[in-house]
Structure formats: C-alpha cells, structure tokens
Amino acid sequence: MQPLFRALSGVLAVGLFAGASAPGAEANAGPPGRSTTTQGAIDWKPCPQNAAVECGTLRLPVDWARPSGEGFDLAVARRKATDPDRRVGVLLVNPGGPGDSGVDFAVRRAKSHFSAEIQAKFDIIGFDPRGVGGSQPVKCSQKLLDQRPSAYPRNQAEFDRLADFNRILRKDCRRHSGPVFDHTDTLSVVRDMDAIRRSLGEKKINYFGHSYGTLIGQQYAEQYGDRIRTMALTANVDHSLGAREFLVSSAATTEDSFHQFVEWCDRTSSCALHGRDVTAVWDDLLARADRGEIRDPENPDQLLTANAIALVAFKAFYGPDGKELATYIAHLDAQEPKDHPQQSQQPQPRALQGKEGQTAAEPFHAVFCQDWRFRPKDYREFARLTEAELRAAPHMRGSPRVHAAVAGCVGWPNEVNNPQHRLRITEAPKILMLHSLHDPANHYAWATNVHRQTRKTTVLLPYEGAGHSVYGRSDCTRDAVDDYLTELKAPSAGSRCTPAAKN
C-alpha cells in the first residue's frame, strides 16, 4: 500500500484545515457507538488549501465507552456533489494507511481519483482517522525516532534491545499525543465514522475504502450494516490472520510482484536490464549491499542496505513502475567497487542538533499494534517467523513493509483493543470488493478469504493485472465501481477484469 509504505518511511501527508469544533452528544443511549441521538453538526468553512472544498471538525469522545469523558476534534472535509439535482448521497472515503489523511484526499486527490459521474452524484467526505493528520495526531520525539534499532535482530540480546526501544518509544508517543494514543484502533474509528453519518443527518452512507480503509469498511459493516447504502472496498485486508499467515502471505505476494517485474523486463526492450538475467543481477546487488559495497546515489557517504534497496523495489511495484525500478537497479549495479574503510550498514542517525523537543507524526504503530495481536515473545519465535518469510520470498527477503510493522509491536502490552477475528456481517447490503491478482502488498488470498467469510454479503471482482490501487486501472474496474455506487448494480458472480494494456 502506498500509504502504508509512506507511514513506515516516516512520511505522512497531513491535511491542514479550518473550522470550529461542534459539540457532540453528551451521552449515548445503549451500547457504545449505537446511539440514535442527533450528533452535533459540523461547522463547515472553506478549506485554506482549496476554497471549493469545505473543512470542519467534529468533537468526539476519546473513549467511546466513556462518552462524557475527554474529547478530541476529528478533522473532516466535504467536496459537494457537482450536480445537486442528481445527488445520491454522501460517499465517505478512507484512502488507507494506517496513517493516510482522508482530509487531504478530499481536498487534493478526490477530483483526479474519482470519475466525473461519482463527483456529480455524491458529496465526497474525507476524514482524518483519530491519531492521524488533523485529528489529534500521534506524535513522537524525533530524536528518539532517529535511534530506532534494526527490525532484524540477530540474537536474543538484539531482540531485547528492540523490545526495550519499542516500550520507550510507546511511552514517549503517549506522552506527546495524550489519551487518544490508547484509542486509535479501527473499531474506535468505525464509531467515529457513524458519528459523522449522524452529524450529516444521513440515514445511510456510501463508503469507498482502499487497502487499510477496507478494514474500516468491514468493521463498519459488522457494527452498522443497516446504515449502509453501498460499500466498495479495494485491495482488501484480511483481519482474521495470525502472525505467521500474515507475514508469509505478505512475503509471497511481494515475491510474486518481483517475478512479474522480471517477466516484464524480459519482454520489454525499453527495460534498462533487458537481455540480462534480471534475477541474478538483483540477487548479486543485494549480496554486494550485504558486503557494504553499494552507496546511496543521493548520499555517497551512506551505504545502502539490502533492505533499503528492497523497499525501493517494493514501492515501485505499487504502480507498477518497472521502467523506473529497472533504471534504479542498473544504476546501482554499475557502481565501481572503491577502496574505503568499511562502514556500518545500519541506518545512521540523522544529526540531532536542534532536534531536542521536536516531534514527528508517527501514527502507524499506534493503530497497527492495537488492531493486531502480533507479539513475538522472544528471539526464537521472531526468528522462526523471519525464516518463514525468507522461504516465501527468497529474492525480496520477505516483505519489508510487513516485517517492520510486526517488529514495531515487539515489547508492546499483550492487550489489544481490536484483535483479529472472522468477519460476522449480518445486516449489510451487497458489498463490492475489488482486488488485483498481483497486488504487491495485500495478497489476493486475503480478498478470497474475506469473501468466503461474507459470501452472502459480498461480491468479489478480481482485476487480473498488477499494482496496488484498483479503481482507476481500467474501464472495467472503474465502471464496475461507478455502476454499483450510483445504480446499485453489482457485477455478476464470476466476473473478472482483464489487465490494462499499460501493465
């Protein structure tokens, strides 16, 4: 997922917004989040970045089990339907992550992402999930983040240092972020989303969720299925997986994307590696990086690790952008060995001068570690998981994204706000799922497994090509979503979308 990759790389798009907080309901009647009372209205104002879009905030409880307790301001943006006479309703959107900004999506990206038909008929509503962007973001000390140890401990002592660091970082982030840090799980976000529905005065919503946003959609359908008109989910997440299944399937789909790249390069004359044994070039490049022989072209004093190179490839698979990746690999491969003192391949801490007291947005693990009970207890268990990853992806050496995600939860408390479980959707209408057969991040089996769990409720439309995003891949994928959202026409069982020519 691009948002997930950006989150793990420490880059987060944070949407700036304007708007006054509106008071929420003081209490909910019945179970948490199932209130039928009217939610406080959002005070909409033109967004500073784009006056054509409205921004505002909604005051919500930090802990839905204590609705009268401490609150926070949820950032929301609205891009009104361009043809009010044909307006169908609201379309809530989450672009993924965890950590991507829905406000930024509505303000900057929605116009180019969705078709004119969708923009004509729906008010597109983006929101920053709690802990993200403008919704009381999770922040951590930059100085501490710069000292993060390797996610690949080699023995029990290094595993213990990783656990100790994660505990220290968690404490630091909680101190800088406040009580919301302990309630950034997806189930809490789902309850926030229903509060948005109430604040808009809508009996039912439409929802589009991508990647990690599919988990929000799935759990909303579990909790509030009767409040959905339509729901389209692309690049689906399977929240029923254990640690080994999660890691191995993630590694396998990353490895599959590598083989897709190799096949593309073999048949494409414009590939910078065309005519060469691409797999051998790649394996040799990572081996040279292991020996400390590959330097960062943008920072010649810094050595590149094999993991850092794999991360670049992983990101390129999202497009997929084989041409750019092949050029990058060829450039690194052409480096001449130089005599120089051996340098550490561990990422070097950035200069700390002037960083005392500085914080950075870091919501990923605050969300991920509260949604997944992944807690390897010692080096032996973690090493077995890593070995299983390597067997599933010997050329990519596992999934750089998911390995780092699980490593970041080492040392966290065992309690999880929103642990994995099989989906139990009982009241929702038909839900449309789309997924690429060659998704580099979310294995296609995740979609089929979710579909099996919800067969009476979901219809799965495979896209037979590569890449992570699905909606805009082809006329087939775009039209399927548009017809479903606007006309309630879901594809028939067994339908498929063939790869776009550009793949």
From TrEMBL:
<protein>
    <submittedName>
        <fullName>Alpha/beta hydrolase</fullName>
    </submittedName>
</protein>
<dbReference type="InterPro" id="IPR013595">
    <property type="entry name" value="Pept_S33_TAP-like_C"/>
</dbReference>
<dbReference type="Pfam" id="PF00561">
    <property type="entry name" value="Abhydrolase_1"/>
</dbReference>
<dbReference type="InterPro" id="IPR000073">
    <property type="entry name" value="AB_hydrolase_1"/>
</dbReference>
<comment type="similarity">
    <text>Belongs to the peptidase S33 family.</text>
</comment>
<feature type="signal peptide">
    <location>
        <begin position="1"/>
        <end position="27"/>
    </location>
</feature>
<dbReference type="InterPro" id="IPR029058">
    <property type="entry name" value="AB_hydrolase_fold"/>
</dbReference>
<keyword id="KW-0378">Hydrolase</keyword>
<feature type="domain" description="AB hydrolase-1">
    <location>
        <begin position="90"/>
        <end position="286"/>
    </location>
</feature>
<feature type="domain" description="Peptidase S33 tripeptidyl aminopeptidase-like C-terminal">
    <location>
        <begin position="404"/>
        <end position="497"/>
    </location>
</feature>
<dbReference type="GO" id="GO:0016787">
    <property type="term" value="F:hydrolase activity"/>
</dbReference>
<dbReference type="InterPro" id="IPR051601">
    <property type="entry name" value="Serine_prot/Carboxylest_S33"/>
</dbReference>
<dbReference type="Pfam" id="PF08386">
    <property type="entry name" value="Abhydrolase_4"/>
</dbReference>
<feature type="region of interest" description="Disordered">
    <location>
        <begin position="335"/>
        <end position="357"/>
    </location>
</feature>
<keyword id="KW-0732">Signal</keyword>
